[in-house]
Predict the structure.
Amino acid sequence: MSIGDRPASDMTLDEIQAEVRVWADHNFPGHKPHEAALGIAEEAGEFWEALVDTLLAGKLSALVGRVCHAELKFEQGIRGTAEERRAKLEDAIGDTFVFLLHLCSSRGISAKDVLDRTWEQVRKRDWQKNRINGDADAQRT
């Protein structure tokens, strides 16, 4: 796996995205795009728990549902042309980004700082070496 050692804080969003792809290809060989959508839904559950008292959490949950719906239809090749399905997926992802940025701004949170901290943790996980918790330094289990 070729993940750089440059701090995430020195990287652009595009550079982090490229590293995420390398990391995902290594950790989950043969992965399918819908698996990322399922990961979004899983994280949305944690997000909902953290913000259960806000209306914004409900809106974000609905947007995650749109992302999952668009990805599923994209993968199944149904409900419109490939271009229409891609446009719906991009729209759902874009809306989700905008609302996440809005939430960060509303709470005084730097979205880039959150991404940097999270990527610094996630990039160290090696699920091929350790299927239990991804700790790359632990013995293979």
Notes: The chain is about 65% helix and 0% strand. The helical segments are 13-27, 33-50, 55-76, 82-107, 111-122. Residues 12-122 form a domain with the Helix Hairpins fold (CATH 1.10.287).
